[in-house]
Design goal:
Blueprint lengths: L1 H8 L6 E4 L5 E6 L34 E3 L25 E5 L3 H5 L4 H5 L22 E12 L2 E6 L9 E12 L6 E9 L1 H4 L5 E7 L8 E2 L7 E2 L20 E11 L2 E6 L7 E6 L12 E12 L20 E8 L8 E2 L3 E4 L6 E6 L6 E6 L5
Parallel strand pairs: 3-12
Antiparallel strand pairs: 1-2, 2-4, 5-15, 5-18, 6-12, 6-16, 7-8, 7-15, 8-9, 9-10, 11-14, 12-13, 13-14, 16-17, 16-20, 19-20
Organism: Mycobacteroides immunogenum
InterPro entries: Glutamic_endopeptidase, Neprosin
Protein name: Neprosin PEP catalytic domain-containing protein
Length: 378
């Protein structure tokens, strides 16, 4: 584990550091010194604007739906940490969440730290349908088998509690290609994962694999994979504020778009300035995700051992607006380019006594919407 930290940080110069609301330290390092680029001659790509998503007027009271980000209402250089440090890096740097030996020591091995979840948990739901579902893994989700170059949704933000014998709860996107040992994904969302982050807050995350979660894959910037381009936002950052049952709903906007040999990740907007970074095609060799994905999947996932935590708000899907978790305005981009196409999702709920999923089609801008969640169980 110590050797892994040396590989991550050897020769890195932190121009500036700050502490977020959870106490995590972010080091602002030269963009070329991040793990995915160190020792490489690759130049950081410039993020393009996303293709057309669509517009319209919000279908709910604008006072009741708001954008969540890092837990302060201020953004960029205006945001200050407890010590008065700007929560943004100088030009030419990126904020990278510091990984410590204490973080690694919460896991039995470096391999366990890198994995999406224990015991095979975290794989795309459609890749592990019963009877092969790991005993540690539950979900409520909706999917579509369609060739795509990424997709989009808004996700409302919750903070499900993680108790004893429970591991994590999340809301996420999966973009999936290949099968068997050649299964490949790029993923993003928010998750509450105390073992990984050391706190009980929701965090922005990315994940990938090129070989069915075998020898490849890691969260965020914890290995030499994701290339971060944003100087303001970083995978692993805590998110807030949290949605209020029966009250204000706070949401984030996420999108992946495959273009120019990269899977670009966008956060809270569709302009190039909203891009956080990308996974380069080279990670996927000659596999499916080198050119496109074959499936889009959205929803919630929980992991536990003898009991499973709440998903989303803890409310079932039929509780709807201001109560259930949602992902709305779900769509995908055709790999050949062009405007986003509304998804046509099939819901799946393998444990309806614990978690449910429901898909509704509304007028824009809600469009294809997934409601999901539940209290969990044992």
């Amino acid at each position: 584990m110590r050797a892994h930290l040396v590989r991550l940080y050897d020769g890195v110069d932190a121009a500036h550091s700050f502490v977020d609301e959870t106490g995590a330290v972010f080091d602002c390092i030269p963009v070329e010194q991040q793990p995915a680029l160190r020792g490489s001659s690759e130049r950081v790509a410039k993020a393009p604007d996303l293709p057309t998503i669509g517009g319209g007027t919000e279908a709910v009271d604008e006072d009741e739906i708001r954008t969540a980000a890092a837990a302060s209402p201020e953004t960029g250089a205006q945001r200050k940490d407890w010590y008065g440090n700007a929560m943004q890096g100088p030009d030419g740097t990126i904020p990278m969440r510091r990984i410590t030996l204490t973080d690694l020591a919460r896991f039995p091995s470096l391999k366990a730290f890198m994995r999406k979840g224990p015991g095979g948990a975290g794989r795309p739901p459609r890749a592990v349908e019963p009877p092969t579902v790991p005993a540690t893994h539950r979900w409520a989700h909706a999917y579509q088998n369609v060739t795509n170059g990424g997709g989009h949704s808004f996700l409302n933000l919750w903070r499900p509690g993680i108790g004893a014998n429970q591991v994590f709860s999340l809301s996420q996107h999966w973009y999936v290609g290949g099968s068997g040992g050649g299964l490949q994904t790029v993923e993003c969302g928010w998750q509450v994962y105390p073992q990984l982050y050391g706190d009980a807050q929701p965090h922005l995350f990315t994940y990938w694999t090129a070989d069915d979660y075998g020898s490849t894959g890691c969260y965020n910037l914890s290995c030499h994979a994701f290339v971060q381009t944003s100087s303001s936002f970083s995978p692993g950052m805590a998110l807030g504020p949290i949605s209020v049952p029966g009250g204000a709903q706070y949401q984030i906007e996420l999108a992946y778009w495959h273009t120019g040999g990269r899977w670009w990740l966008y956060f809270n907007g569709t302009q190039g300035s909203n891009a956080i970074g990308y996974y380069p095609d080279t990670l996927f060799g000659n596999g499916a995700l080198k050119t496109s994905a074959a499936e889009i999947d959205y929803g919630g996932e929980t992991v536990g051992t003898t009991s499973f935590p709440a998903m989303g708000s803890g409310a079932f899907a039929n509780q709807g607006w201001q109560h259930a978790a949602y992902q709305r305005q779900i769509g995908y981009w055709p790999p050949q380019g062009g405007a986003m196409i509304n998804a046509n999702l099939t819901p799946s709920q393998g444990w309806p006594a614990w978690y449910t999923a429901q898909v509704n089609l509304y007028a824009a801008p809600w469009s294809e919407t997934l409601w999901f969640g539940g209290p969990g169980g044992s």
